[in-house]
Amino acid sequence: MLDILEVRYTEEETKAKRAQVAELFTAKSNHVKNSDITAICNHDLELLFACYDQVFFANWFKECFAGTLQFSFSRRMTKSAGKTYYPKDADPARPESLVIKVKINIDMILAYGLVENSDRVGGITTRSRLEALQVVLEHELVHVIEFIHFQQSSCSKKRFRALANHLFGHTESFHCLPTSQQIARHKLGLTLGERVAFPMKGQVVEGLLYAVHKRAVVMVPDRQGDYADQRGQRYTKYYVPLSLLRKSF
Fold first, then answer.
1. Measuring CA to CA, which residue among 69, 65, 66 is closest to residue 47?
2. Are 21 and 13 in contact (CB under 8 A)?
3. Which residues neighbour 92 within 8 Å (Cβ) at sequence distance 6 or greater?
């Protein structure tokens, strides 16, 4: 049986296996038929993991892991490309009760290519949305492996970096996929603190760009507003889709 902690793949082996996973996945998925992802669902993420288990791990998870892995996409994360959740009350003596959840930021994946030089994931220069998704999932699978074996995981630690490199050839523990704030800055020319305008009920409303998450946060001057700055100026907060924002001149 494969000792998952002792696996060492060469760079050539990793690239070949990643390509094999992509080929298997696109052949089986009902939504993703090529590397340019336009539609995808949670089941696809589960399917992608099953392909990784088969190709990289010789079905180690399927045959040796007694617990449950749950995979899903999220639209609530703003800065992280992925996140793995390990229960605080997990009982190592009852591995069959363990539930580990993996969430992937679907907005970052779909925004792939919108910002220049945002294609490096885990230190790997990716070439497509699918490859970026794969490398993000690989990163999270290293977290899963550490949680299963050691009940803790940190991508800043030496053990994580070594596992990620031995299994997948990762050379970095962070991703450069575009965030909403980067998209606003690079594509719309908007920076925090500047004046912006947006349509609201047939009128154009102007305010200050306060933050950018999934939507922009715009503070609009309003004497009856709930928010006040240090000078006593009051504002009303609006959440505005990025596509509606314009610079106010």
1. 69
2. no
3. 151
* Residue 153 · residue 160 · CB < 8 Å: yes
Q: Return the closest-CA partner of residue 217 out of 189, 178, 184.
A: 184
C-alpha 136/C-alpha 174 separation (Å) is 9
Tokens for 100?
């580990």
**Low pLDDT (below 50) residues in the chain:** none
pLDDT given for residue 235 in this prediction: 95
Q: What is the crossing angle of helices 158-168 and 129-150, to 10°?
A: 130
Please report how the helices 11-28 and 158-168 are oriented relative to each other, as an axis angle in degrees rounded to 10. Answer: 70
Contact 209, 191 (CB under 8 A): yes
- How many other β-carbons are positioned within 10 Å of the β-carbon of residue 138? 23
Whether domain 182-247 has CATH 3.30.160: no
Domain range list for the chain = 11-178, 182-247
Q: Which stretches does DSSP call E strand in the chain?
A: 68-74, 82-85, 99-105, 120-121, 124-125, 195-200, 203-212, 216-221, 227-228, 234-240, 246-247
Give the closest residue to 216 by CA, choosing from 233, 191, 235, 187. 191
At residue 187, the pLDDT reads: 65
